[in-house]
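Table S2 (continued). Query chain:
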Amino acid sequence: MGNKNYGIDNETLSKYANEICSIVREGVEVAIVIGGGNIFRGMDGAGAGIDRCQADSMGMLATVINGLALQNALEHSGITTRLQSAIEIERVCESFIRRRAIRHLEKGRIVIFAAGTGNPYFTTDTAASLRAMEIEADVVLKATRVDGVYTADPEKDKNAVKFDNVSFAEVLANRLNVMDMTAFTLCQENKLPIIVFNMNTPGNLFKIISGEVVGTLVS
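Corresponding output:
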């Protein structure tokens, strides 16, 4: 969305694509779960009186639009991609098949997972955790607008303190905002680390895969 109030900002999209391609060229296997809040957010729709299941389905379709846009930007940067949807849209993209997704990654392709989990009431955070388990990812990288996990919302509280490292237990004990509880619990139970970082800072993604301390590591 960039600085817009709605939709897709091509400059921002291109910037993200370049950041992602920089680590793929280093041999890193990358899969992306994409949201759709810049177009339609299911919870907002439900709050406005739309049936929750209908609203979430609309939100899932919004993630497919974003997935197509990101796919185009990535391929303009010279990286082969595959877009897989959790709901069947055969003329637009592949349906999610675990073994096929893993094979794409092995061949050096970026895999974009759209339509969340394909079910209402589950967020794209949960989709990210679920897909990470399914493809046997080493880490979940949660790209946000802030540079890590804080004691409070840094956009609202100037006294909020950032963590460099925090345990799953500390996150729960202190009610820190990392992911929704379903997604977080899935990572915790399967011992899958999470790195929360600011995607809008150029080079952050490359620094992470290079082993530098960026954002907050939850493990």
